[in-house]
Each structure stands twice: as structure tokens, then as C-alpha cells.
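Lecture notes, unit on protein representations.

Consider one protein chain, 388 amino acids long.
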Amino acid sequence: MLAYLFERFPKFSQTFCYREIAELFRQGVRPAIFSLRAPDRGPELNWDPPIVSGVHQLPEGDAFARLADEASASSPQARKTLHEWRGKDDSLRLHQATYIGVQLQKLGVHHLHVHFAGMAARTAFWSKRFFEISYSLTVHANDIFVPNKFEIGLTQIFSAASAIVAVSDFAANQLRDRFSGTGSRVHRIYNGIDCDSFQPAEPSRPPLILSIGRLIGKKGFDVLIDACASLRSRGHEFQCEIIGEGPLSAELQARIGRHGLGKQVLLAGPKPQAEIAARLSRAALLALPCRVDADGAMDNLPTVVMEAMASALPVVSTDVGGIAEMVRNGETGLLVSQNDPVATAEAIAGLIGNVELARSFGRHGRKRAQELFSIQRNVRALRKILGV
């Protein structure tokens, strides 16, 4: 039997994880699901009750400490290691692994799959050590580009994993180069979306420039706002909506104010998936000028780019991470330099000023999304790796 272990499930900002689970259910695979922390449903209204109601959320506080201690009696190695790690950084992962390991054994689970090489992956590492339950993991972006430092780090996690799934060729090649011995165990499987949930866009007037993501530095929303100022100065009519929430909200709103763009640029806040699909269906293009932050943080395969392509929208972005594997420059969108609002504005202007070119990019993008990002196809590929 297969089980999934998440740090938090469901989590609104990680709906790709939920989509994977939902598609497994549709394909007749019913993994057990464990969540280390309480769910973060955000504004999403469409979580499937049969899935989320079956999630095993770990208890907290003194009750959890007592249960984890009782569970350690079933594994002498766990009890010994827990004693040795008492007071050490990240020792909670050992207690979680002990508690979860006993539950997995009761369920007859022989393999655990994890998303992100973080908290849940470190817990899976100890579950294997204590109970010989194999694990695999899907890695995404900052969990491998700028990992947090723990005694059990990426080298140990990858060495013990039976398979490592990267969501882009860019990331897969990095892993093979950085971690010796991983080569044959690294697989590239793109995150999947249900392309049929997105319909070819019928742009509204004035043209809507749409951008979606967490309001953080690596998304480049400040660059987009500056590009909008350039567009307005050139006499272009447009509306720009940035959907999402995050720590830079106030800073970005102030930037909009300094440019006097209050009537053109809206920070729309977070939206449920159905509303995002609806906004994509009315947009002229998606703009996401991603960058590599000073600490190395960057996007890898932004889900919203897939969704925009499935909606037959042209995309303006950069070649950060795996974005160039999604957006073919001059065929499905335009890729510009990072941190370049002038080039971003020129790319946007070229698309909102040439409807036929934008439609051509959109048609090619939708076809490419259907070929590469089908959730059905990509989950079938994952099942082969997991043996389910």
C-alpha cells in the first residue's frame, strides 16, 4: 500500500499536490494521506470531502509527545536514537517519524511518497531508518535551490530515497550534477493540470494583463508594475490584475501609488481556483517576470504558466528555472531578461498590439500544455515509478 506524507495538506498555495492526489483517486489508487500540520484551505472552495476527510493529521502538544513515546516501544532503534537526539535541532522529526511509522505499519503501508525535500522528507528519512519503510519524493524549487540547513540534509535525504522526481529538466540536471549517485534515481515529471478545466480565452477590452502568484520577490511583481508605468507612458490602454497574497503586499501597493497606477493596476488578493480560471478566460496574456533572488531563491515551474497556456494565453516571462521548458520564446510567448521592466513592457506591448500574434502564441501554448502538462498522463508516469 502507498501513503503520502505532507507538511500541510491540503495547502492552498500547493494545489498541484492536491491535483495529484485527486487524479490518483480518479485512477483507482487510494493512498493513505498523512499531514504533519493543520490544513491551509485558503479561499479554495472545491476541496473534495472524500479526500480531505480521510487525511491523518498528527496530534499536537503533550498528547502527541505521549503517543510518540509509546510508539517508540515498537522500534528499539527509534527509542535509542530518540534518546541520543534529545534536545538536538529538528528532533521533532524523529518523534513524528516514530508515530507515523507505527501507523503506517498498522495500515500495511510499504512505501511513502513526499512532496518537497523539507520537513516531511526528513520525517520520511527517519521512518525508513526506524521501520524500513521506503520513500520517494518530488522536489520543486527552493527546497533544492536554497535548502534550509539541518543535520539531515539533501545528501542524506537523496541517498536514502528510492526515487527522486524533479518537476523540470532544469532541476533534474542540477540534482544529477550536485549529488553523485542519484543519476538513475532522478526522474523528470512535470506538475500536472486538468487542461479541460481551462477554456481558450476570449479577451476583454481594454486588454487584461494577468499575473498570479505569492507576493514575494522572486515573482518579479515590482518589475511588472514598473513595466505597466512604461506602458501607460506610451499611451497603451490596459488593465493589470495581480492575484495573490504575501509579505510584499504593502510594498507593491505603495509602488502602484508612486506610479499613479491606481486605476490601471489592482492587487486582487487570493482567489479560489474557479475564479482564477475565469479571469484567465478573459485575459489577453499572462505576465510573470520571475527573477533569481540574491540568496538563490527562484521559481522552477510556476503552475500558473501551465494554466495560462491551457487557457490559450500568450505568456511573457523570463528564462528562470524550467520556465523555458514551458514557454517557447517566439512560439508560445516571449521571454525577456530578468529585472528589466522596459523589455517586459515591450513584450507586453507587442502582444496587446498584435491580436493575431497573441492568438497564434495562445493556440500553440494550449497544444503544448495538453501534450506536456496533462495531469492524467503525468500521474500515470508517476505511478510507474512508485509501482502502483
